[in-house]
Amino acid sequence: MQDLELLSKVFEILKSEKVFDSSSEDIIFPFKDPDSLKSILNLELSNGSPKLNSSTQEDVLRKIVRYSIKTAHPNYHNEMYAGPDWLGLAASWATDALNACQFTYEAAPVFSLVESFTLEYFLKLCGFDGGEGVFSPGGSMTNMYAIAMARHKLVPGIKRHGMYGQQKLIVFTSEDSHYSVTKSVNWLGLGEENVLKIKTDDTSRIDTVELEAAVVASIAEGSKPLVVSVTAGTTVFGAFDDLNRVADICQQHGIWLHVDASWGGAAIFSERHKPLLAGLERADSVSLCPQKMLGAPLQCAMFLMKHSGLLVGCNASCAEYLFQIDKYYDISYDTGDMSVQCSRKIDSFKLWFMLKARGSNWFGASVDNAMSCAAYFHAAIATNIFFKPVRSEYQFTNVCFWFIPKRLQLSSPAEETKEWWAEVYKVTLALKEKMVKKGSLMVSYSSYPQKNLGNFFRLVVKCVPEPTIARMDFVISEMIALGYDM
Protein backbone atom coordinates (compact mmCIF):
# COMPACT_ATOMS: atom_id res chain seq x y z
CA MET A 1 0.00 0.00 0.00
CA GLN A 2 2.87 2.37 0.74
CA ASP A 3 4.06 2.03 -2.87
CA LEU A 4 0.60 2.91 -4.16
CA GLU A 5 0.48 5.91 -1.85
CA LEU A 6 3.76 7.12 -3.39
CA LEU A 7 2.28 6.87 -6.87
CA SER A 8 -0.67 9.00 -5.76
CA LYS A 9 1.72 11.51 -4.25
CA VAL A 10 3.68 11.69 -7.50
CA PHE A 11 0.51 12.77 -9.29
CA GLU A 12 -0.12 15.41 -6.63
CA ILE A 13 3.47 16.64 -6.98
CA LEU A 14 3.08 16.95 -10.74
CA LYS A 15 -0.11 18.96 -10.27
CA SER A 16 1.24 21.22 -7.53
CA GLU A 17 4.39 21.93 -9.55
CA LYS A 18 2.12 22.86 -12.49
CA VAL A 19 3.54 20.30 -14.88
CA PHE A 20 0.09 19.93 -16.44
CA ASP A 21 -0.75 23.65 -16.58
CA SER A 22 -0.54 24.81 -20.18
CA SER A 23 -1.87 28.26 -19.22
CA SER A 24 0.59 28.89 -16.42
CA GLU A 25 2.13 32.32 -15.92
CA ASP A 26 4.81 30.85 -13.65
CA ILE A 27 8.34 30.34 -14.88
CA ILE A 28 9.22 27.42 -17.15
CA PHE A 29 11.87 26.23 -14.69
CA PRO A 30 14.36 27.74 -12.23
CA PHE A 31 17.70 27.61 -14.05
CA LYS A 32 20.71 26.54 -12.01
CA ASP A 33 24.24 25.97 -13.26
CA PRO A 34 25.42 22.32 -13.16
CA ASP A 35 27.41 22.60 -9.94
CA SER A 36 24.57 24.31 -8.07
CA LEU A 37 22.08 21.73 -9.32
CA LYS A 38 24.33 18.87 -8.18
CA SER A 39 24.42 20.40 -4.71
CA ILE A 40 20.64 20.87 -4.52
CA LEU A 41 19.74 17.38 -5.74
CA ASN A 42 22.43 15.29 -4.02
CA LEU A 43 22.72 12.90 -6.96
CA GLU A 44 25.77 10.92 -5.92
CA LEU A 45 25.39 7.15 -5.64
CA SER A 46 27.64 4.99 -3.48
CA ASN A 47 27.64 1.64 -1.70
CA GLY A 48 26.33 1.93 1.80
CA SER A 49 24.34 5.11 1.20
CA PRO A 50 21.40 5.45 3.60
CA LYS A 51 18.07 4.36 2.22
CA LEU A 52 15.36 6.94 1.67
CA ASN A 53 12.34 6.81 3.92
CA SER A 54 8.90 7.61 2.50
CA SER A 55 9.11 11.30 3.39
CA THR A 56 12.54 11.69 1.81
CA GLN A 57 11.42 9.83 -1.31
CA GLU A 58 8.66 12.36 -1.79
CA ASP A 59 11.09 15.23 -1.25
CA VAL A 60 13.49 13.84 -3.86
CA LEU A 61 10.73 13.47 -6.41
CA ARG A 62 9.46 17.00 -5.78
CA LYS A 63 12.94 18.46 -6.31
CA ILE A 64 13.44 16.50 -9.51
CA VAL A 65 10.17 17.85 -10.90
CA ARG A 66 10.70 21.40 -9.63
CA TYR A 67 14.08 21.85 -11.31
CA SER A 68 13.09 20.19 -14.58
CA ILE A 69 11.81 22.06 -17.62
CA LYS A 70 8.00 22.21 -17.81
CA THR A 71 7.59 21.38 -21.48
CA ALA A 72 3.83 21.93 -21.29
CA HIS A 73 4.40 25.58 -20.39
CA PRO A 74 2.81 27.82 -23.05
CA ASN A 75 6.04 29.80 -23.51
CA TYR A 76 8.24 26.78 -24.18
CA HIS A 77 9.20 27.00 -27.85
CA ASN A 78 12.68 25.56 -27.56
CA GLU A 79 12.52 22.18 -29.24
CA MET A 80 10.47 20.28 -31.81
CA TYR A 81 8.51 18.68 -29.00
CA ALA A 82 6.72 20.16 -26.01
CA GLY A 83 4.31 19.00 -23.35
CA PRO A 84 2.61 15.67 -24.02
CA ASP A 85 -0.95 15.30 -25.19
CA TRP A 86 -2.87 14.25 -22.07
CA LEU A 87 -4.65 11.37 -23.75
CA GLY A 88 -1.30 10.08 -24.94
CA LEU A 89 0.13 10.53 -21.44
CA ALA A 90 -2.74 8.53 -19.92
CA ALA A 91 -2.04 5.72 -22.38
CA SER A 92 1.67 5.92 -21.61
CA TRP A 93 1.05 5.62 -17.87
CA ALA A 94 -1.08 2.53 -18.51
CA THR A 95 1.60 0.80 -20.60
CA ASP A 96 4.34 1.74 -18.12
CA ALA A 97 2.32 0.26 -15.28
CA LEU A 98 1.79 -2.95 -17.25
CA ASN A 99 5.51 -2.98 -18.13
CA ALA A 100 4.78 -4.91 -21.30
CA CYS A 101 7.41 -5.64 -23.94
CA GLN A 102 6.64 -5.68 -27.64
CA PHE A 103 8.31 -8.69 -29.25
CA THR A 104 5.78 -11.55 -29.31
CA TYR A 105 2.02 -11.82 -29.23
CA GLU A 106 2.35 -14.00 -26.15
CA ALA A 107 4.22 -11.25 -24.28
CA ALA A 108 1.85 -8.43 -25.33
CA PRO A 109 -1.31 -9.72 -27.04
CA VAL A 110 -3.32 -6.49 -26.87
CA PHE A 111 -0.48 -4.22 -27.86
CA SER A 112 0.68 -6.47 -30.69
CA LEU A 113 -2.74 -5.97 -32.25
CA VAL A 114 -2.74 -2.24 -31.47
CA GLU A 115 0.60 -1.80 -33.22
CA SER A 116 -0.61 -3.78 -36.22
CA PHE A 117 -3.73 -1.64 -36.66
CA THR A 118 -1.84 1.61 -36.09
CA LEU A 119 0.86 0.79 -38.62
CA GLU A 120 -1.75 -0.29 -41.17
CA TYR A 121 -3.56 3.05 -40.73
CA PHE A 122 -0.42 5.11 -41.32
CA LEU A 123 0.78 2.94 -44.21
CA LYS A 124 -2.50 3.66 -46.01
CA LEU A 125 -2.27 7.34 -45.09
CA CYS A 126 1.15 7.52 -46.80
CA GLY A 127 0.03 5.55 -49.86
CA PHE A 128 2.03 2.47 -48.84
CA ASP A 129 -0.81 -0.09 -48.95
CA GLY A 130 0.59 -3.58 -48.58
CA GLY A 131 3.80 -2.31 -47.01
CA GLU A 132 5.14 -2.78 -43.52
CA GLY A 133 6.60 -0.79 -40.66
CA VAL A 134 7.83 -0.74 -37.12
CA PHE A 135 7.71 1.63 -34.16
CA SER A 136 11.16 2.84 -33.22
CA PRO A 137 12.80 5.01 -30.53
CA GLY A 138 12.98 8.28 -32.46
CA GLY A 139 13.55 9.66 -35.94
CA SER A 140 17.28 8.96 -35.92
CA MET A 141 16.67 5.24 -35.65
CA THR A 142 14.01 5.30 -38.36
CA ASN A 143 16.44 6.98 -40.75
CA MET A 144 18.93 4.21 -40.00
CA TYR A 145 16.25 1.62 -40.74
CA ALA A 146 15.79 3.17 -44.19
CA ILE A 147 19.47 2.84 -45.11
CA ALA A 148 19.63 -0.71 -43.72
CA MET A 149 16.52 -1.77 -45.69
CA ALA A 150 17.82 -0.18 -48.89
CA ARG A 151 21.12 -2.00 -48.49
CA HIS A 152 19.45 -5.34 -47.81
CA LYS A 153 17.25 -4.98 -50.86
CA LEU A 154 20.20 -4.03 -53.06
CA VAL A 155 22.86 -6.39 -51.68
CA PRO A 156 21.18 -8.97 -49.41
CA GLY A 157 24.40 -11.00 -49.12
CA ILE A 158 25.91 -8.32 -46.89
CA LYS A 159 23.84 -9.65 -44.01
CA ARG A 160 25.83 -12.88 -44.08
CA HIS A 161 29.18 -11.90 -45.57
CA GLY A 162 29.60 -8.28 -44.44
CA MET A 163 30.87 -5.28 -46.38
CA TYR A 164 34.23 -6.82 -47.28
CA GLY A 165 35.12 -6.25 -50.92
CA GLN A 166 31.80 -4.59 -51.71
CA GLN A 167 31.32 -1.90 -54.33
CA LYS A 168 31.27 1.53 -52.69
CA LEU A 169 27.68 2.39 -51.70
CA ILE A 170 26.70 6.07 -51.73
CA VAL A 171 24.04 7.83 -49.67
CA PHE A 172 22.76 11.15 -51.01
CA THR A 173 21.14 13.72 -48.76
CA SER A 174 20.94 17.49 -48.48
CA GLU A 175 23.22 19.74 -46.48
CA ASP A 176 20.15 20.63 -44.41
CA SER A 177 19.21 17.04 -43.57
CA HIS A 178 19.22 15.66 -40.05
CA TYR A 179 22.61 14.63 -38.71
CA SER A 180 21.31 11.12 -38.06
CA VAL A 181 21.88 10.29 -41.74
CA THR A 182 25.63 10.70 -41.21
CA LYS A 183 25.48 8.82 -37.91
CA SER A 184 23.62 5.97 -39.59
CA VAL A 185 26.22 5.33 -42.28
CA ASN A 186 28.86 5.22 -39.56
CA TRP A 187 26.95 2.61 -37.55
CA LEU A 188 26.18 0.58 -40.67
CA GLY A 189 29.81 0.52 -41.75
CA LEU A 190 29.30 2.50 -44.96
CA GLY A 191 31.72 5.29 -44.00
CA GLU A 192 30.93 8.97 -43.51
CA GLU A 193 32.86 9.96 -46.63
CA ASN A 194 30.24 8.08 -48.64
CA VAL A 195 27.50 10.49 -47.62
CA LEU A 196 27.22 13.13 -50.34
CA LYS A 197 25.54 16.25 -48.98
CA ILE A 198 23.88 18.12 -51.81
CA LYS A 199 23.59 21.90 -51.63
CA THR A 200 20.23 23.50 -50.94
CA ASP A 201 18.62 26.50 -52.58
CA ASP A 202 17.66 29.76 -50.91
CA THR A 203 14.63 28.08 -49.34
CA SER A 204 16.74 25.21 -47.89
CA ARG A 205 15.32 22.65 -50.33
CA ILE A 206 17.66 20.18 -51.96
CA ASP A 207 18.99 21.34 -55.33
CA THR A 208 17.65 18.60 -57.60
CA VAL A 209 19.92 19.59 -60.50
CA GLU A 210 22.97 19.10 -58.28
CA LEU A 211 21.49 15.89 -56.91
CA GLU A 212 21.09 14.36 -60.36
CA ALA A 213 24.58 15.46 -61.38
CA ALA A 214 26.03 13.86 -58.22
CA VAL A 215 24.20 10.60 -58.90
CA VAL A 216 25.46 10.45 -62.48
CA ALA A 217 29.01 11.29 -61.37
CA SER A 218 29.05 8.60 -58.67
CA ILE A 219 27.95 5.96 -61.17
CA ALA A 220 30.65 7.09 -63.61
CA GLU A 221 33.23 6.73 -60.85
CA GLY A 222 32.24 3.12 -60.27
CA SER A 223 30.20 3.65 -57.08
CA LYS A 224 26.69 2.37 -56.48
CA PRO A 225 23.97 4.82 -55.40
CA LEU A 226 22.22 3.24 -52.40
CA VAL A 227 19.64 5.70 -51.12
CA VAL A 228 18.53 9.29 -51.51
CA SER A 229 17.37 10.58 -48.13
CA VAL A 230 15.39 13.80 -48.42
CA THR A 231 13.52 15.84 -45.86
CA ALA A 232 9.92 16.93 -45.38
CA GLY A 233 10.36 19.67 -42.79
CA THR A 234 14.04 20.43 -42.14
CA THR A 235 15.17 20.98 -38.57
CA VAL A 236 16.12 24.64 -38.83
CA PHE A 237 13.92 26.19 -41.53
CA GLY A 238 11.15 23.60 -41.91
CA ALA A 239 11.79 23.20 -45.64
CA PHE A 240 10.14 20.49 -47.75
CA ASP A 241 12.20 18.96 -50.53
CA ASP A 242 10.54 18.50 -53.92
CA LEU A 243 9.53 14.86 -53.50
CA ASN A 244 8.16 14.37 -56.99
CA ARG A 245 11.28 15.68 -58.71
CA VAL A 246 13.54 13.61 -56.46
CA ALA A 247 11.33 10.56 -57.10
CA ASP A 248 11.85 11.05 -60.84
CA ILE A 249 15.62 10.94 -60.35
CA CYS A 250 15.47 7.89 -58.10
CA GLN A 251 13.14 6.06 -60.47
CA GLN A 252 15.40 6.76 -63.43
CA HIS A 253 18.49 5.40 -61.67
CA GLY A 254 16.90 2.67 -59.55
CA ILE A 255 17.68 4.25 -56.17
CA TRP A 256 15.80 3.82 -52.90
CA LEU A 257 14.01 7.05 -51.92
CA HIS A 258 13.59 7.74 -48.22
CA VAL A 259 11.68 10.73 -46.86
CA ASP A 260 12.55 11.94 -43.40
CA ALA A 261 9.18 13.42 -42.43
CA SER A 262 9.87 13.29 -38.71
CA TRP A 263 8.89 16.95 -38.38
CA GLY A 264 6.79 17.82 -41.41
CA GLY A 265 4.90 14.54 -41.63
CA ALA A 266 2.18 15.99 -39.41
CA ALA A 267 0.97 17.93 -42.48
CA ILE A 268 -0.50 14.68 -43.81
CA PHE A 269 -3.53 15.23 -41.54
CA SER A 270 -4.29 18.69 -42.95
CA GLU A 271 -6.23 19.00 -46.19
CA ARG A 272 -4.89 22.54 -46.50
CA HIS A 273 -1.22 21.70 -46.01
CA LYS A 274 -1.01 18.10 -47.26
CA PRO A 275 0.31 19.33 -50.66
CA LEU A 276 3.63 19.96 -48.91
CA LEU A 277 4.02 16.17 -49.01
CA ALA A 278 3.09 15.76 -52.68
CA GLY A 279 4.90 12.72 -54.05
CA LEU A 280 5.28 10.94 -50.71
CA GLU A 281 3.47 7.89 -52.09
CA ARG A 282 6.30 7.48 -54.63
CA ALA A 283 8.92 7.02 -51.92
CA ASP A 284 10.20 3.64 -50.78
CA SER A 285 10.10 4.60 -47.10
CA VAL A 286 9.27 7.38 -44.69
CA SER A 287 10.05 8.40 -41.11
CA LEU A 288 7.17 9.79 -39.03
CA CYS A 289 7.52 11.16 -35.50
CA PRO A 290 4.16 11.96 -33.85
CA GLN A 291 6.23 12.70 -30.71
CA LYS A 292 7.17 16.02 -32.29
CA MET A 293 4.50 18.34 -33.68
CA LEU A 294 1.49 16.19 -32.77
CA GLY A 295 2.38 15.90 -29.08
CA ALA A 296 2.46 12.13 -28.61
CA PRO A 297 4.51 11.47 -25.47
CA LEU A 298 8.15 10.64 -26.07
CA GLN A 299 9.00 8.25 -27.56
CA CYS A 300 6.73 7.67 -30.56
CA ALA A 301 8.21 7.25 -34.03
CA MET A 302 7.56 5.01 -37.02
CA PHE A 303 9.55 3.64 -39.91
CA LEU A 304 7.19 2.81 -42.79
CA MET A 305 7.93 1.37 -46.24
CA LYS A 306 5.97 0.20 -49.25
CA HIS A 307 7.91 -3.09 -49.49
CA SER A 308 6.98 -6.14 -47.44
CA GLY A 309 9.24 -8.84 -46.06
CA LEU A 310 12.37 -6.72 -45.86
CA LEU A 311 12.20 -6.08 -42.11
CA VAL A 312 12.30 -9.76 -41.31
CA GLY A 313 14.73 -10.49 -44.12
CA CYS A 314 17.19 -7.90 -42.86
CA ASN A 315 16.75 -8.15 -39.09
CA ALA A 316 15.64 -11.70 -38.26
CA SER A 317 18.00 -13.93 -36.31
CA CYS A 318 15.29 -16.52 -35.49
CA ALA A 319 16.03 -17.03 -31.80
CA GLU A 320 14.52 -20.43 -31.01
CA TYR A 321 13.61 -19.47 -27.46
CA LEU A 322 11.33 -16.63 -28.64
CA PHE A 323 10.23 -17.10 -32.24
CA GLN A 324 9.17 -20.74 -32.44
CA ILE A 325 7.21 -21.63 -35.55
CA ASP A 326 4.96 -24.24 -33.87
CA LYS A 327 3.13 -21.87 -31.49
CA TYR A 328 -0.54 -22.11 -30.58
CA TYR A 329 -1.49 -18.80 -32.26
CA ASP A 330 -0.87 -16.80 -35.46
CA ILE A 331 2.87 -16.08 -35.30
CA SER A 332 2.59 -13.25 -37.81
CA TYR A 333 1.96 -11.07 -34.74
CA ASP A 334 5.38 -11.98 -33.32
CA THR A 335 7.10 -8.84 -34.56
CA GLY A 336 10.32 -9.01 -32.57
CA ASP A 337 12.36 -10.30 -35.52
CA MET A 338 11.20 -7.37 -37.64
CA SER A 339 12.97 -4.96 -35.30
CA VAL A 340 16.63 -4.39 -34.56
CA GLN A 341 15.58 -4.38 -30.89
CA CYS A 342 14.20 -7.19 -28.80
CA SER A 343 12.79 -5.20 -25.88
CA ARG A 344 10.58 -2.41 -27.18
CA LYS A 345 8.35 -0.02 -25.30
CA ILE A 346 4.67 0.06 -26.23
CA ASP A 347 4.81 3.26 -28.26
CA SER A 348 1.90 2.52 -30.57
CA PHE A 349 -0.80 2.61 -27.88
CA LYS A 350 -0.23 6.30 -27.09
CA LEU A 351 -0.83 7.28 -30.69
CA TRP A 352 -3.66 4.80 -31.21
CA PHE A 353 -5.48 6.12 -28.15
CA MET A 354 -5.09 9.74 -29.25
CA LEU A 355 -6.51 8.90 -32.69
CA LYS A 356 -9.28 6.70 -31.32
CA ALA A 357 -10.39 9.27 -28.77
CA ARG A 358 -10.25 12.38 -30.96
CA GLY A 359 -10.33 11.28 -34.58
CA SER A 360 -8.06 12.41 -37.39
CA ASN A 361 -9.96 15.69 -37.93
CA TRP A 362 -8.64 16.96 -34.59
CA PHE A 363 -5.09 16.36 -35.79
CA GLY A 364 -5.77 18.24 -39.00
CA ALA A 365 -7.32 21.20 -37.18
CA SER A 366 -4.38 21.29 -34.77
CA VAL A 367 -1.88 21.41 -37.63
CA ASP A 368 -3.87 24.19 -39.30
CA ASN A 369 -3.91 26.18 -36.06
CA ALA A 370 -0.15 25.79 -35.55
CA MET A 371 0.47 26.92 -39.11
CA SER A 372 -1.79 29.94 -38.64
CA CYS A 373 -0.03 30.96 -35.42
CA ALA A 374 3.37 30.64 -37.07
CA ALA A 375 2.20 32.74 -40.05
CA TYR A 376 0.87 35.39 -37.67
CA PHE A 377 4.16 35.50 -35.78
CA HIS A 378 6.19 35.82 -38.95
CA ALA A 379 3.99 38.64 -40.26
CA ALA A 380 4.13 40.44 -36.91
CA ILE A 381 7.93 40.44 -36.61
CA ALA A 382 8.36 41.41 -40.27
CA THR A 383 6.96 44.87 -39.47
CA ASN A 384 8.55 45.25 -36.02
CA ILE A 385 11.83 47.21 -35.85
CA PHE A 386 13.12 44.97 -33.05
CA PHE A 387 13.10 41.91 -35.30
CA LYS A 388 14.68 40.90 -38.60
CA PRO A 389 13.37 37.70 -40.21
CA VAL A 390 16.07 35.48 -41.68
CA ARG A 391 13.79 34.65 -44.60
CA SER A 392 10.80 36.37 -46.16
CA GLU A 393 8.85 33.12 -46.57
CA TYR A 394 8.52 29.84 -44.68
CA GLN A 395 6.89 26.55 -45.61
CA PHE A 396 6.12 25.27 -42.13
CA THR A 397 5.98 26.42 -38.49
CA ASN A 398 9.69 27.18 -38.08
CA VAL A 399 10.26 30.95 -37.97
CA CYS A 400 13.86 32.16 -37.84
CA PHE A 401 14.84 35.71 -36.96
CA TRP A 402 17.35 38.04 -35.35
CA PHE A 403 16.51 40.35 -32.46
CA ILE A 404 17.71 43.91 -33.01
CA PRO A 405 18.03 45.95 -29.78
CA LYS A 406 17.54 49.71 -29.80
CA ARG A 407 21.24 50.55 -30.15
CA LEU A 408 21.62 48.43 -33.30
CA GLN A 409 18.54 49.63 -35.17
CA LEU A 410 19.47 51.20 -38.51
CA SER A 411 17.72 53.42 -41.00
CA SER A 412 18.88 51.39 -44.01
CA PRO A 413 20.11 47.85 -44.75
CA ALA A 414 23.09 49.49 -46.43
CA GLU A 415 24.41 50.28 -42.95
CA GLU A 416 24.65 46.58 -42.02
CA THR A 417 28.40 46.19 -41.75
CA LYS A 418 30.39 43.10 -40.76
CA GLU A 419 30.88 44.63 -37.32
CA TRP A 420 27.15 45.30 -37.00
CA TRP A 421 26.33 41.69 -37.78
CA ALA A 422 28.88 40.48 -35.24
CA GLU A 423 27.03 42.48 -32.58
CA VAL A 424 23.66 41.08 -33.68
CA TYR A 425 24.99 37.54 -33.36
CA LYS A 426 26.22 38.32 -29.84
CA VAL A 427 22.80 39.68 -28.91
CA THR A 428 21.23 36.31 -29.83
CA LEU A 429 23.38 34.52 -27.26
CA ALA A 430 22.97 37.18 -24.58
CA LEU A 431 19.19 37.40 -24.96
CA LYS A 432 18.87 33.61 -24.98
CA GLU A 433 20.70 33.47 -21.65
CA LYS A 434 18.57 36.25 -20.20
CA MET A 435 15.31 34.52 -21.17
CA VAL A 436 16.37 31.16 -19.76
CA LYS A 437 17.67 32.57 -16.48
CA LYS A 438 14.49 34.58 -15.96
CA GLY A 439 12.49 31.47 -16.85
CA SER A 440 9.80 33.32 -18.76
CA LEU A 441 10.50 32.17 -22.31
CA MET A 442 12.50 29.50 -24.15
CA VAL A 443 13.27 29.87 -27.86
CA SER A 444 16.12 27.95 -29.47
CA TYR A 445 18.89 29.45 -31.58
CA SER A 446 21.04 28.21 -34.44
CA SER A 447 23.64 29.28 -36.95
CA TYR A 448 23.58 28.38 -40.63
CA PRO A 449 27.15 28.06 -41.94
CA GLN A 450 25.93 26.74 -45.30
CA LYS A 451 24.83 30.27 -46.15
CA ASN A 452 27.23 32.14 -43.82
CA LEU A 453 24.52 33.12 -41.35
CA GLY A 454 25.48 33.65 -37.71
CA ASN A 455 23.38 32.95 -34.62
CA PHE A 456 19.64 33.59 -34.96
CA PHE A 457 16.54 32.54 -33.06
CA ARG A 458 14.35 29.67 -34.27
CA LEU A 459 10.79 29.59 -32.97
CA VAL A 460 8.95 26.33 -33.65
CA VAL A 461 5.18 26.19 -33.21
CA LYS A 462 3.71 22.80 -32.26
CA CYS A 463 0.17 21.47 -31.92
CA VAL A 464 0.44 20.61 -28.21
CA PRO A 465 -0.08 22.54 -26.03
CA GLU A 466 -2.44 24.46 -28.27
CA PRO A 467 -0.73 27.65 -29.49
CA THR A 468 -2.60 30.94 -29.58
CA ILE A 469 -2.15 34.40 -31.08
CA ALA A 470 -1.83 35.76 -27.55
CA ARG A 471 1.14 33.49 -26.93
CA MET A 472 2.78 34.63 -30.14
CA ASP A 473 2.32 38.23 -29.00
CA PHE A 474 3.88 37.36 -25.65
CA VAL A 475 7.05 36.09 -27.34
CA ILE A 476 7.38 39.42 -29.12
CA SER A 477 6.69 41.62 -26.10
CA GLU A 478 8.86 39.59 -23.73
CA MET A 479 11.85 39.63 -26.07
CA ILE A 480 11.51 43.38 -26.48
CA ALA A 481 11.22 43.87 -22.71
CA LEU A 482 14.33 41.81 -22.04
CA GLY A 483 16.41 42.88 -25.02
CA TYR A 484 15.49 46.55 -25.54
CA ASP A 485 18.70 47.95 -24.03
CA MET A 486 21.10 45.14 -24.89
Automatic annotation (TrEMBL):
Spans through the membrane: none
UniProt keywords (A-Z) are: Decarboxylase, Lyase, Pyridoxal phosphate
Xref: Gene3D superfamilies: 3.90.1150.170, Type I PLP-dependent aspartate aminotransferase-like (Major domain)
Q: Which InterPro entries does this one have?
A: PyrdxlP-dep_de-COase, PyrdxlP-dep_Trfase, PyrdxlP-dep_Trfase_major, Pyridoxal-P_BS
Cofactor (UniProt): pyridoxal 5'-phosphate
Q: Which Pfam families match?
A: Pyridoxal_deC (PF00282)
Which PANTHER family does this one have? GLUTAMATE DECARBOXYLASE-RELATED, LP10922P
Family note: Belongs to the group II decarboxylase family.
The name this protein goes by in its record: Glutamate decarboxylase
Native organism? Aedes albopictus
Q: What is the lineage of its organism?
A: Eukaryota, Metazoa, Ecdysozoa, Arthropoda, Hexapoda
